[in-house]
Amino acid sequence: MKLLENSSFEAINYQLCIETGDSNIIGRIESYSCKMAGDDKHMFKQFCQDGQPHVLEALSPPQTSAVSPSRLSKSGEDAESPLSDKCCRKTLFYLIATLNESFRPDYDFSTAKSHEFSREPSLNWVVNAVNSSLFSAVGEEFNNLKPELWNALDQEIYLQECDIYSYNPDLDSDPFGEDGSLWSFNYFFYNKKLKRIVFFTCRSVSFMSGCGRDSLGNELDMELEDEMDDETDNFEEDSFHQAVCV
User: Fold this and answer.
1) Other Cβ atoms within 10 Å of 35 Cβ, number
2) DSSP characters over 179-193
3) Average per-residue pLDDT in the chain?
4) Is 119:69 a contact under the CB 8 Å cutoff?
5) How far apart are CA 70 and CA 52, in angstroms?
6) Could you read off the pLDDT of 18-68 as tens digits, one per residue?
7) Strand partners, 183
8) Taking the mean position of all CA atoms in its chain, how far away is CA 127?
9) How far apart (Å, rounded) are the C-alpha atoms in residues 243 and 238?
């Protein structure tokens, strides 16, 4: 999985780090190519030892709805099949690899199981869930960001063409399961035609835990460090070209 540069996402991510008074909202959106390179190919071969790429894996019902995606159009005995929500192992690998790339080196999701993921019923369900969470936490301030956020997502991944998955781990596996965590969501917008995944993750952390302000500070420090690294790289590159020209 390769992180794809997106200036619109970078601007939005800065706005998704918000102090609300009693908690922090810390969110980010990232775009990844599903084209596998060296480490990914090695990991995929190991992953396929437990099953072939096109074998279907059972998923958990989505938390944003009492009705699973596949059951929306089914009835009778088939609707009760334990595989009513499912995805192929190759797709499951993409989801796990995205988590690894997004949270490395702090977390390793290589042993994540299919039941920790869900396929969401529809784009509208997810949009409403995200908007509700962020508006409840931030209030009117989110209304200014909302059009920009969804427009940027649509331009990058073509939302209507996506299958949408979520990651809902148990507390032991949850990277956001620290003390003071109020809520979190992790959505994957997977466009099979583009071979691309946009990962949208966000959490709310209470200041009462003593972790909230430190978390936001660390996120902003990382943003500044990335910007400084980019500026240093550009400066060194310019100096190199000038030296060559001389």
Assistant:
1) 10
2) TTEEEEEEEEEEETT
3) 79
4) yes
5) 22
6) 888 788 899 999 999 998 877 778 888 878 776 677 888 889 988 754 444
7) 204
8) 14
9) 9
Position 196: which residue type? R
The values of phi and psi at residue 209, to 5°, are -75, -15
Burial of 165 (0-12, 13-18, 19+ CB in 10 A): buried
CA-CA-CA-CA torsion sign (91, 97, 103, 106) = positive
Q: What is the largest CA-CA distance in the chain?
A: 78
CA dist 176 and 103 (Å) reads 11
Average pLDDT on 146-160 reads 97
* 70 residue type, one letter: S
| CA 131 – CA 155 distance, rounded (Å) | 18
- For residue 27, give the H/E element and its range: strand 23-33
Rounded Cα distance, 173 and 109, in Å: 8
Locate 66 and state its tokens. Answer: 């009492």
